[in-house]
C-alpha cells in the first residue's frame, strides 16, 4: 500500500474513525478534513485535521494538496445542504458551476459530478472498502432467528420497490409489511424513515426493512451503511428484521448489531437481490 498520506473527508458517524483506525493499523499516514456540523473535532484530537464548511471546498482542496495527499476517501453521513446555505468560496463557486444541474439531481448524479471534479483537480477518489473489507458481508443469515415465509415475501416486494427507487436515484431502502409499502427512503435517511414507518405499522405479521445498492451506484466510493442504530430503529418500528445486499453494505459494529438484533428477536439477512425476484422468490433460500 502506498505510503503517501490519504485524505479522509469525514462526515458524521463511526465509519470515518474506523477508516482512520485502519490506516493506523497498516501504517498508512492520513490527514482528515472534518465536515463542519457532522464530524466531531474532539474525536480527532492529536491528528492532522482541518475543519471546513461544505461551501469552502477551495480551501479544503488546497489544504489537502499541501499535505501531499492525492487519494481522497469520502466516508460518513452528511445531510445535503440547500444551495443557498453553502456560501461557497471563490473556488467552491467554480466547482458548483462545473457540477451544474447535477447538483439538483439525486445523490448518484451529484456524487458522480463531485468525483469528476476531484479527478480534474488531480485527486483519486477511493472508497472506504479499501480499508474496511471486514465491514462487508457475504450472503447469509447473521442472527439466531431467520425470516419466515411472510417476511421472505415482504423482502421480495421490498427488492422490487427499492430497485425502482434506485433507478430513479431516490433512495436505498423501503419498509414493507404484509406486502404493503409503509415507507420509502428519500433525503431524510434510514433512521427517519424507520421512525415514520413505526407510526404506520399494522396489526399482524411484522414487516421488514430492505436496503440495497442503487443500480449504477459506485460501490467503490458510495455504499449504504447500517449500524446498531439501524437495528434499534427497526426494533422500535416493530419490524421482524432487516434484509440488506450482500457485499453491498458496510456494517458498523457488526457484533453489536447482531447482539442487539438477537436480543430484540430480529433477523439480519445478507441477500443476493436477484434471488428475491420472480415467482419463485417467496421460497428463496436464506
Automatic annotation (TrEMBL):
Q: Does the keyword Hydrolase apply?
A: yes
Query: Domain named LpxI C-terminal: which ranges?
Result: 139-268
Gene3D superfamilies in the cross-refs: 3.40.140.80, 3.40.50.20
GO terms for molecular function, please? Answer: hydrolase activity
The question of whether Hydrolase is a record keyword is answered with yes
The UniProt record lists the EC number as 3.6.1.54
**One matching Pfam family:** LpxI_C
- InterPro entries assigned: LpxI (IPR053174), LpxI_C (IPR010415), LpxI_C_sf (IPR043167), LpxI_N (IPR041255)
Q: Which residues form the LpxI N-terminal domain?
A: 6-134
Q: What are the entry keywords?
A: Hydrolase
Top EC class, one word = hydrolase
From the Swiss-Prot or TrEMBL record, give the protein name: UDP-2,3-diacylglucosamine diphosphatase LpxI
Q: Which organism is it from?
A: Roseomonas populi
Amino acid at each position: 500500500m502506498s505510503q503517501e498520506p490519504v485524505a479522509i473527508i469525514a462526515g458524521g458517524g463511526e465509519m470515518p474513525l474506523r477508516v482512520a483506525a485502519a490506516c493506523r493499523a497498516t501504517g498508512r499516514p492520513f490527514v482528515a478534513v472534518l465536515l463542519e456540523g457532522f464530524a466531531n473535532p474532539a474525536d480527532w484530537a492529536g491528528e492532522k485535521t482541518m475543519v471546513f464548511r461544505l461551501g469552502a471546498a477551495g480551501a479544503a482542496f488546497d489544504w489537502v494538496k499541501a499535505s501531499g495527499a492525492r487519494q481522497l476517501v469520502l466516508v460518513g453521513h452528511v445531510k445535503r445542504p440547500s444551495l443557498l446555505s453553502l456560501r461557497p468560496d471563490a473556488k467552491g463557486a467554480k466547482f458548483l458551476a462545473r457540477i451544474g444541474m447535477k447538483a439538483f439531481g439525486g445523490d448518484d448524479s451529484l456524487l458522480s459530478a463531485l468525483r469528476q471534479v476531484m479527478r480534474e483537480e488531480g485527486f483519486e477518489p477511493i472508497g472506504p472498502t479499501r480499508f474496511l473489507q471486514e465491514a462487508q458481508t457475504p450472503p447469509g443469515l447473521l442472527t439466531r432467528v431467520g425470516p419466515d415465509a411472510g417476511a421472505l415475501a415482504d423482502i421480495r416486494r421490498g427488492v422490487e420497490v427499492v430497485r425502482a427507487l434506485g433507478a430513479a436515484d431516490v433512495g436505498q431502502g423501503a419498509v414493507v409489511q404484509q406486502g404493503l409499502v409503509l415507507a420509502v427512503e428519500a433525503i431524510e435517511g434510514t433512521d427517519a424513515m424507520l421512525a415514520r414507518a413505526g407510526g404506520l405499522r399494522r396489526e399482524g405479521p411484522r414487516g421488514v426493512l430492505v436496503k440495497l445498492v442503487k443500480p449504477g451506484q459506485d460501490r467503490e466510493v458510495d455504499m449504504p451503511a447500517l449500524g446498531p442504530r439501524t437495528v434499534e430503529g427497526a426494533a422500535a418500528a416493530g419490524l421482524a428484521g432487516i434484509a440488506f445486499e450482500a457485499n453491498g453494505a458496510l456494517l458498523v459494529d457488526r457484533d453489536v448489531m447482531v447482539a442487539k438484533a438477537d436480543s430484540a428477536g430480529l433477523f439480519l439477512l445478507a441477500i443476493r437481490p436477484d434471488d428475491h425476484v420472480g415467482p419463485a422468490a417467496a421460497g428463496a433460500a436464506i
